[in-house]
Amino acid sequence: MPDLIELSAGDLHRKLVAGDVTARQIVEHFLDRIEQIDGRIGAFNTVTAEAALDKAADIDARLDKGETVGPLAGVPIALKDNLCTRGVPTTCSSKILEHFVPPYDATVVERLDLADAVLLGKTNLDEFAMGSTTESSAFAPSANPWDLSRVPGGSSGGSAAAVAADLAPLALGSDTGGSIRQPASFCGVTGLKPTYGRVSRYGLIAYASSLDQIGTFSRDPRDAALLLEVIAGHDPRDSTSAREPVPDYATELEKEVAGMKIGLPREYLAEGIALDVEAAVRAAADAYQGLGAEVVDISLPHTEYAVATYYIIGTAEASSNLARFDGIHYGRRADGKMNVDELYSRSRSEGLGDEVKRRIMLGTFALSAGYYDAYYLKALKVRRLIKKDFDDALAGVDCILAPVAPTVAYKQGEMIDDPLSLYLADIYTSATNLAGLPAIAFNAGTGEGGLPIGVQLMGRPFEESGLLRLAHAFRQATDHHLARPNLTED
Amino acid sequence: MQYETVIGLETHAQFHTRSKMFCGCKTDFGAPPNTQTCPVCQGLPGTLPVVNRYAVELGLRAALALRCHIAPVTQFDRKNYFYPDLPKNYQVSQNYHNLGVDGRLEIEVDGQAREVGIWNVHLEEDAGKLEHPEDTGANYTAIDLNRAGTPLLEIVSAPDMRSAGEANAYMNELAAILRHLDISDCKMQEGSLRFEAGISVRPVGGEKFGNRVEVKNLNSMSAVVKAIEHERERQVAVLESGGTVPSQTMLWDVQREVTEPMRSKEEAKDYRYFPEPDLVPIEISPEWLDQVREQMSELPAARRKRFIAELDLPPYDAGVIVEQKPIADYFEQTVEQGVEPKTAANWIMGEVMRVLNERLCEIDDLPVSPPMLAELIGLVTDDRISNSVGKTVFGEMCSSGKKAGEIVEEKGLAQISDSGELEAVVKQVLADNPDAVADLESGKQQAKGFLIGQIMRATRGKANPKLAGELIDRLTGD
Amino acid sequence: MTRITTDTVEQVADLSKLILSDEELAGFQEQLDKIIGYFEVLNSLDTTGVEPLAHPLDLRNVFRQDTVEDSASRKDALANAPDKTDEAYKVPVVIESS
């Protein structure tokens, strides 16, 4: 049997179809690795070993009979625990949903099943995807595989850590203000946030509906292309899902990058960025020039307003989206004798964590009588200006190269008492969500403490292909991806 | 001091759609609790709404019928509040870009036409139902989500009504429109049509409105009328005694026929409306509006006018018949068979409606089609059967579904218009009633009525009364 | 500049159906004041004549047809309910009906 750790999702699938390995062997390998390693990482909330082995057996049986299997047959995948899975607990890493078992599958989960991917389990996140360290999980924080005393980033920290630690070759996350790209950067993996509307949100437990988008974690852009092609496309159950055709990303990925034009926004390389991160971005720009792409300076003049705009709109939507968690129809209900009003307040107060409460209150404030115009409506207007910045810039360049986070991964506990500083660190990622654009984050070197540094490329709506192509070309031309976290026991 | 009442009405009508506003669950009334729900209308996390296009079109019909300005782009907003019948703790409704605004509805009160302004017409989803168990010892409330997500039309009137009578006329006219355009079945007993009244009083001639009292729990039009009258009296009494009427929400107590302040905590209402981010805006093109117009049948007011002007119906009859579209349709189809309109109206307002009331059924459930009724009326007008036999035959038609001719034939109910056949009966009756004959001969005309009655009895109603009268005259040698 | 007082925080917590201890109230007051104070950076921007943008995609008129689909079974509907009868969700007595 080949060493499965070394294989990409695409290679795993090819070896399976060629008969070099069985689905059962693949799944058992990853389950064993989770068993050995995840105690230290804490990437998973739930491991669905039994269902995974059943699915593997089904795939093996179909292959034995010579039947065709899906494009992800035999490839294990981990799902962020805010994606609904029928019969499997979906907790959002919140006490209030600790025992919630959805009666339905998210559209992406249905599509993965049709593609014969094998669900390994559900991964940890900041509670309700609100945070950027995975420390606001109500259960336990996850660790960064590169340095267990560091955070994996967030909110999709569990998914990023799972891929970085080779606990799964693929994972899904969600990105509302950077929740895929920032943990991808902190964990040295590839994280793709597709265009808003590219992937159905049906079954993604909403944080902020007009910003949320499901995306992928993988070791490399090629696997991201493979996974995106399976989950992308119109879904009649999501009114905000686009009808754009889904290209053959795997083919698009191989195309030439010479002649492409890349913009470097000066506002993203101004004060506040760590030196090692800035150096990585500039080095990536040089690498692209070496590949024949043109790199030009551009301006995104409203960048400094992105964080405030994002937090007003995001928390406003969240305050309404999270109102349903009240202990009445599902979820955790406070114990004892009380009236309905107390039941709401006590169930929510006991079931929700501080960061979630903070954002619910911020959003309630922004929408409340007397403040709506000054905060919420104002933010919607600034959102238009921010989107216009991108429209203008992307009229002149194919994509934008930028840092993902101002620094490498934080120490655990470092930022826990300083919510505003954590919010401000979303400066490079949140504008993309406000504008609904696609972006891909990938490893572009290491910095302080040997920790990975990611950069991101942002593109025009529905032009994920160009981003994948550029990210792939970078990986072919550089050897940053050869650095791997060391998880052998001391 | 003289006071006038100022009334505005908020109307909620459930749309006559097959499925819910945002999901494919049925909207049938009376299904067992929690059997018409799905993850979407249960408000499960992760689910998303998708708008029922037909509900939007029905909303457009209403907005057009109420002569509203139609928004070129309309959108849904979220209304945020916590209540156990509202699974998401927000209601998807409209606030910033309503489907229709600034409309008007013409009503008629005591022969006087009046216009009531319509502030807006908008779309929303209904909430579930709270059931309080019959068992008085039960210490819980049960939630049934079958109704949650049912498409609702809300129509907000301007405070343009000045009496309970005007409010009554408004409600009836509105219901007639909604029924006519097949927007809603308007069954108040099933909750598919509901009202809330905003009521205030002020001295006649006053410019400022008094403090507004909102009355909820009005489950019939008569409850609205009674609540208005009650509130008027109550508020005037408060003002007369030098007090002020507080702005508040009251509940109508159906049993005691009084309004009661809501006992639950009156929270400072802050619904924090904002655009529903899970739905996209709806653009209403002129072409789409034209299509909707083409699907709209004639409005009740126009139909009433036509019935009066072209079919020569008395205004009262036109009002009764047009109130419900199926009945108006039935009437027109009967007239199309060649029945004289007033005669058709008499039959429909008399026998047909009597049977509908007795059987608590809809006219479409009646086995008697308009051509069948026309045949029956023809038999009566042609003197083939008497009017009273006609009524009996109609009853028989309703039970058996048979045609009038068949029944008349089978039961031998044809009128005796043959003077030879009837003469024997008349002679017998005269012989049996010498006193009445004597009275008649001495000039007492009422005795003739008595004798005709006896003849009808002897022939089980089949005698032609006119012919019977002539025979009496001849045989008594008058 | 809008100062966020403990009164404001209490009102907002009430609307959000959250109960805060005195200690939490003080903590949130300080944080929310700081964060909302930061939000005022937007006030330095002139947005006269700028149309609000609620949604990144310019989608319009997304509908479903008025067709009936299967509902969930009552068992499934009530499966996650913390308290229920055989046929309904249960809550403490709600005094007023709406």
Walk me through the structure:
The complex is a heterotrimer of chains A (490), B (478) and C (98). Chain A is of the alpha/beta class and 490 residues long. Chain A contains 16 helices and eleven strands. In chain A, strands 1-3-2-4-6-5-10-11-9-7-8 form an eleven-stranded mixed β-sheet, sandwiched between helices. In chain B, strand 7 (100-109) and strand 8 form a beta hairpin. Chain B has 478 residues and is of the alpha+beta class. In chain B, helix 12 (419-432) crosses helix 14 (446-458), helix 12 (419-432) crosses helix 15 and helix 14 (446-458) packs across helix 15. Chain B has a nine-stranded mixed β-sheet. In chain B, strands 6-5-16 form a three-stranded antiparallel β-sheet, with no helix packed on it. Chain B has a two-stranded antiparallel ribbon with strand order 4-17. Chain C has a domain at 6-44: Histone, subunit A (Orthogonal Bundle). Helix content of chain C is 34%, strand content 6%. Chain C has three helices and two strands, in the order ααβαβ. Chain C is flat and about 55 Å long. The interface between A and C is large, with 73 and 50 residues.
Task: Describe this protein with a few key phrases.
heterotrimer; A: 490 residues; Amidase signature (AS) enzymes; eleven-stranded mixed β-sheet; 39% helix; C: 98 residues; mainly alpha; 2 strands
Average the pLDDT over all residues of chain A and give the rounded result: 96
* Name of the CATH class of chain A: Alpha Beta
The tally of structural domains of chain B comes to 3
Q: Decide which structural class fits the backbone of chain A.
A: alpha/beta
- Tell me the strand order in the biggest sheet of chain B: 3-7-8-11-1-12-13-14-15
CATH superfamily of chain A: Amidase signature (AS) domain
Structural topology:
The complex is a heterotrimer of chains A (490), B (478) and C (98).
Chain A: H1 9-18, H2 23-41, E1 44-47, H3 49-64, E2 76-80, H4 107-114, E3 118-123, H5 157-164, E4 170-175, H6 181-187, E5 190-193, E6 213-218, H7 221-231, H8 249-253, E7 261-265, H9 275-290, E8 294-298, H10 306-321, H11 340-351, H12 354-367, H13 372-396, E9 399-403, H14 419-424, H15 430-435, E10 439-446, E11 452-459, H16 464-477
Parallel strand pairs in A: 2-3, 2-4, 7-8, 7-9
Antiparallel strand pairs in A: 1-3, 4-6, 5-6, 5-10, 9-11, 10-11
Chain B: E1 3-14, E2 51-52, H1 53-65, E3 69-70, E4 73-74, E5 77-80, E6 90-93, E7 100-109, E8 112-125, E9 129-131, E10 140-144, E11 151-157, H2 164-180, E12 193-203, E13 213-218, H3 221-240, E14 248-253, E15 258-261, E16 274-275, E17 282-283, H4 286-295, H5 300-311, H6 315-322, H7 325-336, H8 341-359, H9 370-381, H10 387-400, H11 404-411, H12 419-432, H13 434-441, H14 446-458, H15 465-475
Parallel strand pairs in B: 13-14
Antiparallel strand pairs in B: 1-11, 1-12, 3-7, 4-17, 5-6, 5-16, 7-8, 8-11, 9-10, 12-13, 14-15
Chain C: H1 6-15, H2 22-39, E1 63-64, H3 74-78, E2 89-92
